[in-house]
Design brief:
Strand content: under 5%
Helix content: 55-70%
Distance between the termini: 12 Å
Number of helices: 15
Strand order of the largest sheet: 1-2
Largest sheet: 2 strands, antiparallel
Order of helices and strands: HHHHHEEHHHHHHHHHH
Shape: globular
């Protein structure tokens, strides 16, 4: 009973914070390696390498802001998430609409320009709003989607942003959100038959939409990416170019890697386009080899395992589903990014969490971790305000408390 109470106590989870910050700091190092130029001296201090790279400097700035994001989201009242879930969902969809309108006028895909050359990607923030809105809807009843009204409300949470994102031409974020949606429905207690039917309908809708966009010529590059994945040799100089170069770069690292800040390295010669963003895993594979890649994978595994542990012992259904949504978001990002860098998955332009260069993705990932930390810090409060229907998580995931 003592061990059970210890596991469910409200606390700030420093283990999770340490793991996330360690991977994020390593990301600054990886970005500086990927953007190393011959004009730099390989023997100069690491700090100089970071300062000499504009991308590494910006990534360092993003990481410095991370503790502020974690602190803010950890310490705001837990009830705020319940009250703000729907307004944030509407606001995020409004931002997506702004991007879509701006895209129609200028051809910009999914980003908005801001001050000092920075850009923001609203579809990243939409992931967090989807988690909150869906967690709220699923926690309002013991049988989500059990009525037609509940079905429409929950379907709209994925349907509205999906339509806008597809219209804006960005499929990567949509795939992440669909995966998150399915995982949260499962652990939210949706009937399995309904969930399977919903999944089949969603897949058919995506395929039909994909076929329309590609056959109409408006998004033919997506068709090329799929064909390149199925037959990389034929498209080695076009659609599969990045993937082929990435695999060769990772392979050149061998077991222990060639080292960092090496003149003539594939990363230094820009052998892999965008090797500081979406394909940064190729840089890591070359510099640190199989051993370094495995250490990074273990770090991700520990982050996900820690959040699974926190979710198991979170008895408020709304809070538990928030953690599940963040787990699903990070899991898909890691799996898809490493998969596309190693030829196991098609190219989608999904960044590697906490490591790839990018402010919007860093803020989103840190925001998700901050939400998880908030749930664990306010566990006792969340149980006190929970309704009888939302007091416990679903039996598919939860370990029920003893004596309750």
């Amino acid at each position: 009973m003592i061990a059970e109470n210890r596991r469910v106590r409200a606390h700030t989870d420093w283990i999770l914070i340490f793991l996330v910050m360690a991977v994020s700091i390593f990301g600054i190092y990886a970005v500086s390696i990927a953007t190393y130029t011959p004009s730099d001296s390989g023997d100069m201090p690491l700090l100089n390498h970071i300062l000499n790279s504009s991308y590494a400097r910006r990534q360092g700035l993003f990481v410095l802001v991370a503790p502020l994001i974690l602190s803010f989201l950890t310490n705001i009242p837990f009830l705020w998430f319940r009250k703000a879930a729907r307004p944030l969902f509407y606001l995020s969809n409004l931002l997506l609409l702004v991007v879509w309108v701006f895209n129609r006028a200028t051809g910009v895909k999914a980003w908005l320009d801001t001050l000092w050359g920075f850009t923001i990607q609203p579809s990243e923030f939409a992931k967090l709003s989807l988690i909150l809105a869906l967690a709220l809807e699923l926690s309002l009843t013991e049988k989500p989607m059990g009525t037609f009204r509940s079905f429409i409300r929950i379907a709209g949470i994925i349907g509205i942003p999906a339509i806008i994102i597809v219209a804006s031409g960005e499929m990567g974020s949509l795939l992440v959100m669909i995966f998150m949606f399915g995982i949260m429905l499962y652990f939210g207690g949706v009937n399995l038959r309904l969930l399977i039917g919903f999944g089949i309908a969603g897949v058919l809708a995506i395929l039909l939409l994909y076929a329309y966009l590609t056959l109409s010529g408006s998004d033919s590059y997506r068709l090329v990416r799929i064909l390149a994945f199925l037959n990389p040799e034929e498209y080695s100089s076009s659609g599969a170019y990045q993937q082929t170069q990435s695999m060769m770069t990772i392979g050149s690292g061998g077991a222990t890697g060639i080292g960092v800040f090496v003149d003539g390295a594939m990363s230094q010669l820009n052998y892999v386009p965008a090797d500081w963003t979406d394909f940064i895993f190729a840089t890591i594979g070359e510099a640190f080899g199989f051993r370094g890649c495995m250490i990074l994978l273990v770090a991700y595994f520990l982050i996900l395992l820690r959040m699974i542990y926190l979710a198991i012992y979170t008895y408020d259904r709304f809070g538990m589903l928030i953690i599940i949504g963040v787990i699903a978001m990070l899991l898909f990002h890691v799996f898809e990014n490493i998969g596309m860098c190693t030829g196991l998955m098609p190219i989608t332009g999904i960044p590697l969490p906490f490591v790839s260069y990018g402010g919007s993705n860093m803020v989103t990932n840190m925001g998700g971790i901050g939400m998880v930390l908030n749930v664990t810090k306010h566990r006792s409060l969340s149980l006190n305000v929970a309704t009888p229907q939302t007091a416990y998580g679903h039996k598919r995931f939860m370990r029920m408390p003893k004596g309750r």
